[in-house]
């Protein structure tokens, strides 16, 4: 899953895709490099990011969605939003997947809306909001709490008729560096849900702070953790650098194939 942030303030590439020409250029590159999906986000969810209105988020994502699908009609797009109105209009514009950082907790109409749209739904674990999540990193048992959260959100989604659910443990969302590594180290425990697992750790602070580098220098670290995630059962990598992630997938699959024989 290639990330296309149409926001001015994302932690890594904020402001780099602010016009249709650069959006299309990035989409073309990612698709050529092997991306299965492109994830379009108009609301920055980095810690402490500014809240924006629904209308502003729509003004960012809808033109991008329409332009990409006009240029690349066979592309599969997801919309990165926690707002049901954005999800509805994005799907009506041709988006195939809704990617919700709040798993329906920040908009009481989200699960009902996605159920009525009958599209796949990515449910991520988070506590609080992007503005407050850094204050919510206390857990008595991290894995137990995330597992319970998913069991509850899956049940709520099923109740609203959502058939295809993908789980995202939410690296960096209401989790500190130690907790992110704990989550990655025990990622295979989420196999119990028998649902696809998405990992979004590309260029995040867990990598660059651990290595004492910048986000721009965190590609090698991202590749290492993407490899670990694949070995531990991740089905989808949400990434800024598609070619390198596809190489991780290809080599990890080669190793796995060799083990099978």
Description:
By secondary structure, the chain is of the alpha/beta class. 44% of the residues lie in helices and 11% in strands. The protein has a six-stranded parallel β-sheet, with helices on one face. A two-stranded parallel sheet has the order 7-8. The two termini are 29 Å apart.
Give me the secondary-structure topology.
Layout: E1 2-5, H1 20-32, E2 38-41, H2 54-71, E3 77-80, H3 84-92, E4 97-100, H4 110-117, E5 121-124, H5 142-159, E6 165-168, H6 177-185, E7 198-199, H7 205-211, H8 219-231, E8 236-237, H9 242-260
Parallel strand pairs: 1-2, 2-3, 3-4, 4-5, 5-6, 7-8
Helix pairs in contact: 1-2, 2-3, 3-4, 8-9
**Strand content range:** 5-15%
In round numbers, the mean pLDDT is 93
> Strand order across the biggest sheet?
1-2-3-4-5-6
Provide the gyration radius in Å. Answer: 17 Å
Main structural class: alpha/beta
Order of helices and strands: EHEHEHEHEHEHEHHEH
Largest sheet: 6 strands, parallel
| Overall strand count | 8
The shape, in one word, is globular
Report the helical percentage: 40-55%
Distance between the termini: 29 Å
Ranges where pLDDT stays below 50 over 5 or more residues in a row are: none
Individual helix count: 9
